[in-house]
C-alpha cells in the first residue's frame, strides 16, 4: 500500500505533521475526553510528548506500513486533529483506522470527513478492509464510524485497556472497499429532535444521569415480578445500562427511553424496543411505570408513541410484547394500543430455582395501531 503524503477531500486536508503543530497536538492529546478514550497517551501530555510524536512517532507509523496524518483546515492549514492507519495485515489487505479531534474543532464533522477521506484513499491504494474500534461508551466516535460508512460488526472481548481499571470490550466497525459510499443506514434512527411526544407524555433516550431513577424503578418488587427471571438488578448493572444506552441505539441492539410528564418534566417510567428478527422487521417492546403515574394512561400513551415511531421512521413491520399471564394491567395497556393476544408459550422463560414461567405474547401490526 502506497499512500500520498497530502490528501484533500470532503472539506479537510490530510498532511504530514510539522514542528509548528506542537501546541495544537498538546491541545488535542491533553484534553480529558481524548485521554479517557485513548488510554495509551502519556498523562499528563506535554510539549515534549508532542515533539516526540511529530519527530519519531508519526514517522514510525509510516515506516511500519501504516499512516499518521495531521487533519488540517484547508483554508488556514492549522491542525484540527489526527487520523491514521495502524496494525496493518498485508496478507489480508487490512488495517485499523483511528482519529482524534481538538476540542474546538468538534461537532463540525471533522472526524467523519477525515475518516472518509483516508478510507477512500486507502481503498484506492489497495486496502480491502478497514476496522474502526470504539469504546462502548464513546457514542460520538460511534457516530463518526456510521457517518463514514462503517458498519457495526460485533464486540471485541477485552480488546481495550483502561488507564487504571483493567481491560474492557471494544466495538468493531468495518468498512470494505466494495461498500457503497455515504453514511451507513441505521436500524434505529434518532428520534425527531430527540423526543417523541403527544403533549402529555414525552419519550427521550435514556442517559447516564438517569441511573438512580432507573434503579429505583426496576428494583420495585412488582416490576421485578414481571421480569424473567424475577431477580432485581444490581446498581452497577443499571448504571452500565444507562451509560451504554446511546451505544445500544447506534449499534441497532436496543432503544431504551425515559417516559416523562410534559407539564412537570418529572420522570414517570421507562420503555424500550429491541429487534427480535431484523430480516422480518419484528421487534419487541417493554415498559414500566413508577407508582404515582400508574392508572393515568401514561403507559398507553408511551407505547402508542413508541409504536408509531417503530412503524414510521424505524420502518418495522410487526411489534410483539411478552407478558406474565396474570399481569392484567399490562394486557389492558397493550390492547388499548391495538395489540392482540397471539400465543401462550408454556415454560418459555426462566423463573427462580430452576422453575419455568409461561409467556403470554401480544402482537401489533401497523394497520391495527390505535
Automatic annotation (TrEMBL):
Keywords: Transferase
Organism superkingdom: Bacteria
SUPFAM superfamilies associated with the record: Acyl-CoA N-acyltransferases (Nat) (SSF55729)
Domain N-acetyltransferase: 12-177, 201-370
GO cellular component: cytoplasm
Pfam families recorded: Acetyltransf_3
Gene Ontology molecular functions: protein N-terminal-serine acetyltransferase activity; protein-N-terminal-alanine acetyltransferase activity
InterPro entries the record matches: Acyl_CoA_acyltransferase, GNAT_dom, Ribosomal_N-acetyltransferase
PANTHER family per UniProt: ACETYLTRANSFERASE, RIBOSOMAL-PROTEIN-SERINE ACETYLTRANSFERASE
Protein name per the record: RimJ/RimL family protein N-acetyltransferase
